[in-house]
Protein backbone atom coordinates (compact mmCIF):
# COMPACT_ATOMS: atom_id res chain seq x y z
CA UNK A 1 0.00 0.00 0.00
CA UNK A 2 2.83 2.40 0.87
CA UNK A 3 4.45 1.75 -2.55
CA UNK A 4 1.23 2.73 -4.36
CA UNK A 5 0.97 5.88 -2.25
CA UNK A 6 4.61 6.76 -2.94
CA UNK A 7 4.19 6.15 -6.67
CA UNK A 8 1.11 8.36 -6.80
CA UNK A 9 2.88 11.06 -4.82
CA UNK A 10 5.92 10.83 -7.11
CA UNK A 11 3.73 11.11 -10.24
CA UNK A 12 1.79 14.00 -8.74
CA UNK A 13 4.96 15.88 -7.83
CA UNK A 14 6.46 15.29 -11.28
CA UNK A 15 3.25 16.46 -12.96
CA UNK A 16 3.07 19.57 -10.78
CA UNK A 17 6.69 20.43 -11.58
CA UNK A 18 6.05 19.88 -15.30
CA UNK A 19 2.97 22.11 -15.16
CA UNK A 20 4.88 24.86 -13.36
CA UNK A 21 7.69 24.66 -15.90
CA UNK A 22 5.22 24.98 -18.79
CA UNK A 23 3.36 27.90 -17.24
CA UNK A 24 6.56 29.80 -16.43
CA UNK A 25 7.95 29.18 -19.91
CA UNK A 26 4.79 30.28 -21.72
CA UNK A 27 3.92 33.23 -19.47
CA UNK A 28 7.46 34.55 -19.82
CA UNK A 29 7.79 33.50 -23.49
CA UNK A 30 9.29 36.82 -24.64
CA UNK A 31 12.37 36.15 -22.50
CA UNK A 32 12.23 32.31 -22.61
CA UNK A 33 13.33 31.94 -26.23
CA UNK A 34 15.97 33.45 -28.50
CA UNK A 35 19.68 34.20 -28.50
CA UNK A 36 19.42 36.22 -25.31
CA UNK A 37 17.10 34.47 -22.88
CA UNK A 38 16.41 34.15 -19.19
CA UNK A 39 14.06 31.24 -18.82
CA UNK A 40 12.36 31.82 -15.48
CA UNK A 41 11.29 28.15 -15.46
CA UNK A 42 14.95 27.16 -15.12
CA UNK A 43 14.69 28.16 -11.44
CA UNK A 44 12.93 24.80 -11.05
CA UNK A 45 16.17 22.98 -11.89
CA UNK A 46 16.99 23.31 -8.18
CA UNK A 47 14.15 20.89 -7.34
CA UNK A 48 16.24 17.70 -7.74
CA UNK A 49 17.72 18.82 -4.42
CA UNK A 50 14.37 17.93 -2.86
CA UNK A 51 12.87 15.13 -4.94
CA UNK A 52 13.77 12.73 -7.77
CA UNK A 53 10.30 13.44 -9.19
CA UNK A 54 11.80 16.69 -10.47
CA UNK A 55 13.76 14.80 -13.12
CA UNK A 56 10.84 13.65 -15.30
CA UNK A 57 8.86 16.73 -14.29
CA UNK A 58 11.49 19.11 -15.63
CA UNK A 59 12.00 17.04 -18.79
CA UNK A 60 8.30 16.77 -19.60
CA UNK A 61 7.72 20.42 -18.68
CA UNK A 62 10.48 21.53 -21.03
CA UNK A 63 9.10 19.41 -23.88
CA UNK A 64 5.58 20.80 -23.46
CA UNK A 65 6.80 24.35 -22.81
CA UNK A 66 8.92 24.29 -25.96
CA UNK A 67 6.07 22.84 -28.02
CA UNK A 68 3.55 25.31 -26.68
CA UNK A 69 6.03 28.16 -27.08
CA UNK A 70 6.39 27.41 -30.79
CA UNK A 71 9.90 25.95 -30.77
CA UNK A 72 11.14 23.95 -33.74
CA UNK A 73 11.50 20.16 -33.43
CA UNK A 74 15.28 20.40 -33.00
CA UNK A 75 14.78 22.72 -30.04
CA UNK A 76 12.06 20.56 -28.50
CA UNK A 77 14.30 17.50 -28.65
CA UNK A 78 17.73 18.89 -27.81
CA UNK A 79 16.64 21.73 -25.52
CA UNK A 80 14.63 19.23 -23.51
CA UNK A 81 17.55 16.80 -23.44
CA UNK A 82 19.74 19.58 -22.06
CA UNK A 83 17.21 20.04 -19.26
CA UNK A 84 17.06 16.28 -18.66
CA UNK A 85 20.85 16.05 -18.45
CA UNK A 86 20.88 18.97 -16.01
CA UNK A 87 18.17 17.40 -13.86
CA UNK A 88 19.76 13.93 -13.72
CA UNK A 89 23.23 15.23 -12.91
CA UNK A 90 21.81 17.86 -10.54
CA UNK A 91 20.07 15.07 -8.62
CA UNK A 92 23.38 13.22 -8.36
CA UNK A 93 24.95 16.37 -6.86
CA UNK A 94 22.05 16.96 -4.41
CA UNK A 95 24.27 16.58 -1.35
CA UNK A 96 25.78 19.98 -2.08
CA UNK A 97 23.05 22.53 -2.72
CA UNK A 98 25.41 24.90 -4.54
CA UNK A 99 26.42 22.25 -7.08
CA UNK A 100 22.87 21.21 -8.09
CA UNK A 101 22.38 23.96 -10.73
CA UNK A 102 25.79 23.50 -12.39
CA UNK A 103 24.77 20.65 -14.74
CA UNK A 104 21.74 22.59 -15.98
CA UNK A 105 23.87 25.66 -16.64
CA UNK A 106 26.56 23.64 -18.44
CA UNK A 107 24.27 21.39 -20.51
CA UNK A 108 22.21 24.33 -21.72
CA UNK A 109 25.33 26.41 -22.38
CA UNK A 110 26.69 23.68 -24.64
CA UNK A 111 23.52 22.43 -26.36
CA UNK A 112 21.19 25.44 -26.76
CA UNK A 113 23.64 27.65 -28.72
CA UNK A 114 24.06 24.83 -31.25
CA UNK A 115 20.27 24.65 -31.63
CA UNK A 116 20.09 28.43 -32.01
CA UNK A 117 22.81 28.44 -34.66
CA UNK A 118 21.90 25.38 -36.70
CA UNK A 119 18.16 25.14 -36.02
CA UNK A 120 17.12 28.78 -36.00
CA UNK A 121 19.96 30.11 -38.14
CA UNK A 122 21.02 32.78 -35.65
CA UNK A 123 24.19 34.11 -37.19
CA UNK A 124 26.21 34.98 -34.11
CA UNK A 125 29.53 33.38 -33.17
CA UNK A 126 29.01 30.24 -31.08
CA UNK A 127 31.15 31.54 -28.21
CA UNK A 128 28.93 34.63 -27.99
CA UNK A 129 25.75 32.52 -28.08
CA UNK A 130 27.26 30.32 -25.36
CA UNK A 131 28.00 33.38 -23.25
CA UNK A 132 24.44 34.70 -23.66
CA UNK A 133 22.89 31.35 -22.75
CA UNK A 134 25.29 30.84 -19.83
CA UNK A 135 24.43 34.23 -18.38
CA UNK A 136 20.70 33.56 -18.70
CA UNK A 137 21.12 30.13 -17.10
CA UNK A 138 23.09 31.57 -14.21
CA UNK A 139 20.27 34.04 -13.57
CA UNK A 140 17.57 31.36 -13.88
CA UNK A 141 19.29 28.45 -12.16
CA UNK A 142 21.41 30.17 -9.57
CA UNK A 143 19.80 33.48 -8.73
CA UNK A 144 16.15 32.43 -9.05
CA UNK A 145 16.81 28.77 -8.23
CA UNK A 146 18.57 29.60 -5.00
CA UNK A 147 15.77 31.97 -4.02
CA UNK A 148 13.36 29.09 -4.59
CA UNK A 149 15.55 26.66 -2.63
CA UNK A 150 15.74 29.12 0.26
CA UNK A 151 11.97 29.50 0.24
CA UNK A 152 11.49 25.72 0.24
CA UNK A 153 14.29 24.92 2.70
CA UNK A 154 12.14 24.78 5.81
CA UNK A 155 9.07 23.44 4.02
CA UNK A 156 10.52 20.58 2.01
CA UNK A 157 9.18 17.86 4.34
CA UNK A 158 5.57 18.97 3.90
CA UNK A 159 5.85 19.40 0.13
CA UNK A 160 8.18 16.55 -0.85
CA UNK A 161 7.37 13.98 1.85
CA UNK A 162 8.23 10.32 1.32
CA UNK A 163 11.44 11.27 -0.49
CA UNK A 164 14.59 11.76 1.57
CA UNK A 165 16.25 14.89 0.26
CA UNK A 166 19.81 15.96 0.67
CA UNK A 167 18.48 18.51 3.16
CA UNK A 168 17.03 15.83 5.46
CA UNK A 169 19.98 13.49 5.11
CA UNK A 170 22.40 16.27 5.92
CA UNK A 171 20.53 17.12 9.10
CA UNK A 172 20.56 13.48 10.23
CA UNK A 173 24.33 13.38 9.83
CA UNK A 174 24.96 16.61 11.77
Your description of this structure?
The structure is a single chain. This protein has 174 residues and is mostly helical. It has one domain (2-167): Arp2/3 complex 21 kDa subunit ARPC3. 70% of the residues lie in helices and 0% in strands. It has eight helices and no strands. The chain has helices at 2-27, 29-32, 54-68, 73-92, 102-118, 126-152, 156-159, 166-173. Helix 1 runs parallel beside helix 3 (54-68), helix 3 packs antiparallel against helix 4 (73-92) and helix 5 (102-118) packs antiparallel against helix 6 (126-152). The chain is globular, with a radius of gyration of 16 Å.
CATH fold call: Arp2/3 complex 21 kDa subunit ARPC3
- Tally the helices: 8
Question: What is the oligomer described by this structure?
Answer: single chain
CATH architectural grouping: Orthogonal Bundle
- Which structural class best describes the helix and strand composition? mainly alpha
The low-confidence parts are: none
Number of DSSP E strands? 0
Rg (C-alpha, Å): 16 Å
Tally of individual domains:
1
SSE map:
Blueprint lengths: L1 H26 L1 H4 L21 H15 L4 H20 L9 H17 L7 H27 L3 H4 L6 H8 L1
Helix pairs in contact: 1-3, 3-4, 4-5, 5-6
Q: What keywords describe this structure?
A:
174 residues; mainly alpha; 8 helices; 70% helix
